[in-house]
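> call design_seq(struct)
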């Protein structure tokens, strides 16, 4: 991986991490288009540049993120179901080898987003307080994101809306929940692949995290404003179109692979 490829992948990560369109799916597409060779470092890079995206949430919401112990306990409860994801690690690794799964997940997720605004219509005035039970249930939705192409953001936002949270509040809790979730995933991947990271690779990791941080800052602010005003339908159509394009390419004999 060279600097140009690292920058493009980091931009893709920053834009898509907090949008309901699947950052994993888009990085799969970006890696294939760029012709990035599959290495342990590349796999570690695509996970560890999430540190930059994590930092963007803390910076943007620092007044709300550093609050009562009750807030942190709810985040901890929402993270409990992640234990299931660790138990399914081998099955997930097998799925990561299939671009078709990414494409189908993108397509199905897009259909869901077309209707989610009709299914859950709670306004900010009518929403209920986030309880420990609801936090846990939202955490269960997050498990769906272990399937490449599902989108952690989409799963947790829909989970929050299903528990009578408004679109804005559900999206913001999804951002907060991303911090411990992505930190744990990034730290684990770094530990597993530290042997594959050489001195020259550190520069790529630094630039990748800086870019993902800056781009994620812009993406989060833009997404919240758009979501509050317009809902999920545009994201749904986008996912459907992208999913169909990939499916057609695969069925026509194009060779794509998850790197």
């Amino acid at each position: 991986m060279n600097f140009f490829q690292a920058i493009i992948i980091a931009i893709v990560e920053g834009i898509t991490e907090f949008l309901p369109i699947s950052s994993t799916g888009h990085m799969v597409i970006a890696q294939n288009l760029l012709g990035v060779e599959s290495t342990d470092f590349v796999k570690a890079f695509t996970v560890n540049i999430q540190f930059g995206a994590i930092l963007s949430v803390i910076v943007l919401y620092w007044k709300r993120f550093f609050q009562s112990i009750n807030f942190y306990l709810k985040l901890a409860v929402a993270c409990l179901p992640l234990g299931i994801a660790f138990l399914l690690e081998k099955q997930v690794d097998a799925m990561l080898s299939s671009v078709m799964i990414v494409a189908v997940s993108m397509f199905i997720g897009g259909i869901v987003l077309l209707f989610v605004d009709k299914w859950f219509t709670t306004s900010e005035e009518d929403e209920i307080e986030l309880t420990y039970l609801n936090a846990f249930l939202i955490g269960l939705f997050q498990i769906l994101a272990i399937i490449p192409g599902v989108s952690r953001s989409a799963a947790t936002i829909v989970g929050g809306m299903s528990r009578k949270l408004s679109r804005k509040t559900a999206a913001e809790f999804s951002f907060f929940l991303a911090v411990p979730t992505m930190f744990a995933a990034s730290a684990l991947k770094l530990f597993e692949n530290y042997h594959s990271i050489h001195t020259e690779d550190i520069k790529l990791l630094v630039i990748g995290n800086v870019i993902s941080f800056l781009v994620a800052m812009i993406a989060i602010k833009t997404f919240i404003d758009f979501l509050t005003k317009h809902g999920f339908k545009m994201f749904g159509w986008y996912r459907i179109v992208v999913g169909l394009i990939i499916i057609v390419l695969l069925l026509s004999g194009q060779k794509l692979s998850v790197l």
